Amino acid sequence: MAAVAGWCGPCNDEQQYVPGLQTKFEPKGFRFVEAMMQGYNARTGAPATEADINRWQSAHGIHVAMGLDPEGKLFSFADVSAFPLNMIVRTSDMKIVYMQVGLQDLTKTLSALP
Fold this sequence. Notes:
Layout: E1 2-5, H1 9-14, H2 18-25, E2 33-38, H3 50-60, E3 65-68, H4 74-78, E4 85-90, E5 95-101, H5 106-111
Parallel strand pairs: 1-2, 2-3
Antiparallel strand pairs: 1-4, 4-5
């Protein structure tokens, strides 16, 4: 699960990895989900809208499940306030098993998992 903002450069940069990661990891049971907290106006930090999600998916050519998190509730799980926030959640018990903040190579991160 990733928490992103439309205006966030690192959030935009890491999207280049998503299609390849989906191809590699979805057959193993992984699902990629993104929550957009803020739209494209960095100055105001205005909450994201459905139009922002449509713009995001179109701009990056990605097809992942996306939702809105205009109140930034995902940050409360991590005690952080920086983008991007990436978490791996075990769905059997909804436990966060891995978390990273900031742009990192998602391919290396996921490849290191058992």
